[in-house]
Amino acid sequence: MTIRRATLADLLPLVALARRCYAEAFSQDKYPGNPIDGFIDEHVTTAVYAQEFADRRASFWLAENEAGEAMGFLKLRRHAPPRRLAERNALELVRIYLLEQHIGHGYGKQLMQFCLDYARSQGHKAVYLGVWEHNAVAQAFYRKQGFTPFGWHVFPFGGERQRDIWMSRAV
Question: Quick one: fold of 2-170?
């Protein structure tokens, strides 16, 4: 797997990848009643992602296989962390997703290691993220990667107000 910074030329394939990743990760089969379709239709669009690309504090990264096919992606963002996080020099891991077929093969760990190495190379002292309180699989993955909870926040999702747990770790 290779990880490269996404450019505006990657916008359409990135949105298609993100829509698929979200649909797989939060499907009705896994979370009955979860309003995933509404969230995707509102927040995972070309217009929204084009705005996110314009944010100079944010960067998108694509994970590709040897044939150059997208497997997953990251979004990182530099800005003031939540007040509850003691370490103020922290990078936010906004999104980390793999297509379902690539989960369980060590690629998630590689994506996370890339994020941690990147944060360190940019002078950050910690990485933090938000994870849905009902996503036990993701929480377990983050704990294995050394993340610990430090609070929570409300996350608007498909017309609902859901709760995300803040987690962080030093780099």
Answer: Aminopeptidase (3.40.630)
